[in-house]
Design brief:
The complex is a heterodimer. By secondary structure, chain A is mainly beta. In chain A, about 5% of the residues lie in helices and about 55% in strands. Chain A has two helices and 14 strands. By secondary structure, chain B is α+β, with helices and mostly antiparallel strands. The chains are: A mainly beta, B alpha+beta.
Chain lengths: ~280, ~160
């Protein structure tokens, strides 16, 4: 019953930073939906390592309650046999629901915004990995918070973000806490700063990092089950009016991971499709 | 015959008193990408009476042309910008309305809406005394207003009697 209530609250309250539509594909960013805007994202996220490939699909929904508050939900499905560390940067095996609040929004000139967004969400266990350390754990819901800040303009984008996820304990098992961070630089070349009725392209360099704590299994901490990784790679975002497609790939810059526990993760990749439904509703005078 | 004449005069006076925005060109800050412009386009088109909307991302200029007989209010244009998370700056408007008040303190009333502006000239030397009480077309600038508000002053470049 408690579990059902938590799930219901999650769907109602709603999420974590599922980066998409206006921003980078791997990293935290600040954009939120317009008021009454409905957004739908779906993508494939892959992690390739020495002990298999894990693919997950994530479908995210967002709704702009106000110009600066968006509620969202992410429904994942995972398949493949990757024995990989916990990750909150990559869409994985959690259902999540939350709210994002753009609490700082400073419009400084034509096309330029300085903004900061905080997100808080509930994370509910979804489909479980079918192999590896995490596949046998009893899982419980968690809570995830993220903070992102940065500048968007017609020519350049810079975002910094960080997130923390804490899971509850279930039957003396607990999934590792995750601390994630990201830095993104985006650029739109002058010849691509075109009218809005043409395809809008921009490229990003995405640096992401994660530290996952130790896994608790049967009341005992599994040795060498924590991990720290740093990833870097490019991504490209193309948008036409209200449809966006984005793809990116990352390789490891730094890894402090036990290969006997998790193997060696080599590549991360993502392809994401977005549809944005803007509201034409206006008040009468 | 008298009745026909009276009805005709009433109809003529109604046409003469028609008031509306004909064109609104507003500068919008904060739009960096195509979806931003598309969102503004969709929101503006949702306002009854809007005919065409053009958005220039590089200048931030949103150009709105309206159909004759519309009753769109300035607050609706501002709201369309605000709900998408952007900021509206000065707007250049061409608006038809009734000139009231006095030569020292003239007002423009856009009938059919609640919009009423105190008129101030952008440059000195414009004589509007002969237009008081008439329906006029004003080309002017509405200064930037705060969120949820509309400027109560219209700085006019020209005031002409409406045809």
């Amino acid at each position: 019953m408690k579990y059902r209530m938590v799930l219901a609250c999650a769907v109602l309250v709603t999420s974590t930073a599922f980066a998409a539509d206006h921003g980078p594909v791997f990293s935290y960013a600040t954009p939120v939906n317009s008021q009454r805007e409905l957004s739908f994202d779906t993508g494939i996220f892959g992690r390739y390592g020495s002990q298999g490939t894990q693919l997950s699909t994530g479908s995210g929904f967002g709704y702009g309650v106000t110009p600066h508050i968006t509620v969202n939900a992410l429904l994942p499905a995972s398949f493949g046999s990757g024995n990989l560390p916990e990750s909150r940067m990559m869409s994985g095996t959690e259902w999540s629901a939350g709210a994002s609040w753009r609490f700082l929004h400073s419009v400084t000139s034509v096309g330029k915004r300085l903004e900061s967004t905080a997100s808080l969400g509930l994370v509910i266990p979804g489909p479980q990995q079918d192999s590896g350390v995490l596949s046998t754990l009893h899982r419980a819901p968690g809570i995830a918070g993220t903070l992102a800040t940065g500048v968007a303009s017609r020519s350049q984008y810079v975002w910094f973000g960080a997130g923390y996820t804490r899971f509850a304990e279930a039957s003396s098992d607990r999934r590792p806490d995750t601390l994630s961070w990201s830095a993104v630089y985006g650029y739109r070349p002058p010849r691509l700063r075109r009218g809005y009725d043409q395809w809008d392209y921009r490229g990003f360099a995405e640096l992401t990092g994660e530290h996952t704590g130790s896994v608790l299994s049967g009341g005992t901490i599994l040795p060498n089950s924590s991990s720290t990784t740093l990833w870097l790679g490019p991504s490209v975002l193309a948008i036409f009016k209200n449809v966006a497609i984005e793809a990116g790939v990352q390789g490891p810059l730094f890894r402090d991971v036990s290969e006997s526990v998790y193997g060696r993760e080599r590549v991360r990749f993502a392809i994401n499709l977005s549809y944005l439904k803007y509201s034409s509703h206006t008040s009468s005078h | 015959m008298k009745k026909v004449l009276a009805v005709s005069l009433l109809a003529l006076s109604t046409i003469a008193a028609r008031a509306e925005y004909e064109q609104v060109n507003m500068t919008v800050f904060g739009m960096d990408c195509a979806p931003c412009a598309h969102a503004i386009h969709v929101s503006m088109k949702g306002i009854q009476g809007v005919n065409t909307v053009d958005v220039d991302l590089n200048t931030g200029l949103v150009s709105i042309k309206l159909t004759p007989g519309n009753s769109a209010a300035m607050r609706q244009f501002n709201e369309a910008v605000e709900k998408n998370g952007f900021t509206h700056k000065d707007a250049n408007v061409i608006v038809r309305g009734q000139l009231s008040g006095s030569v020292q303190a003239p007002f423009l009333e856009v009938t059919g809406t609640k919009d009423r502006y105190a008129l101030t000239p952008l440059a000195s030397g414009t004589d509007i005394s002969g237009l008081l009480g008439k329906t006029v077309v004003v080309d002017g600038i509405l200064p930037q207003s705060g969120k949820g508000k509309v400027s109560d002053t219209l700085r006019y470049k020209s005031v002409m009697e409406a045809r």
